[in-house]
What does this fold into?
Amino acid sequence: MQNPWFEIRRPRNECPLRLFCFPFAGGNCSTYSEWPEALGDLAEVICVQLPGRGIRFNERPYTRMEPLIDALVPAFRGLGGNPFAFFGHSMGALIAYEVSCRLRTIGVRQPVLFFASGTEPPHLVQQGEGLYRWNDVDLIARLRRLNGMPDEILENRELVDLLLPVIRADFELTETYKASECPGFDFALGAFGGSDDPEVSPQIITRWSEVTSGKFQFTTIPGDHFFLKSRRSELLDEIRKMIGACVNA
It folds into this structure.
């Protein structure tokens, strides 16, 4: 699969399912670098590489959802072979949802399994705080509180200057987001929330159940908003179980 939108670190065409992973705000494919080994023969892990990061560092990041979806969805058209699933954390879950909506609208094959992590469902997303307009000092302080970026990066001014434009763009994308009108899905959906996430409560995340008529499972993972890093093994254990149930159904 040769496509700038997709990064495959360990091709595994023999796997029964492909798992497309979408990044959180400011994130990139390095978040999922250890997932191929962890999921083994269950799934081929494909990271969605957004402009402004990784090998697409020199490309301008998107600040609005609709143009991003317009550009991204053609990469999913004509996907043959095995069934596929989506995983998205925070911003990534919203992008994955919008891709699913667009695929449904144009009559293209849907994911058979959807994982939403660390965010409210699209229909409950509220207007943001305007973080993308904050000055650098306040924005860095907010990032530090979220615990999503190591201190050694936040304390390196050169690195911060490189990363902040992408982070601002991603915050603008999510804070101006309005969910598309989309008929309910029927895929199985697993939702995950951090027990101590200051951004979104587990109770709100359970309302992802309203997105699908398929099987729904909610799991609380110990940790803050970035439990997918601090508690990666627990998260992947649950993902493995759901993928196994899906491919063996």
About this structure: Residues 159 and 174 are 23 Å apart (CA to CA).
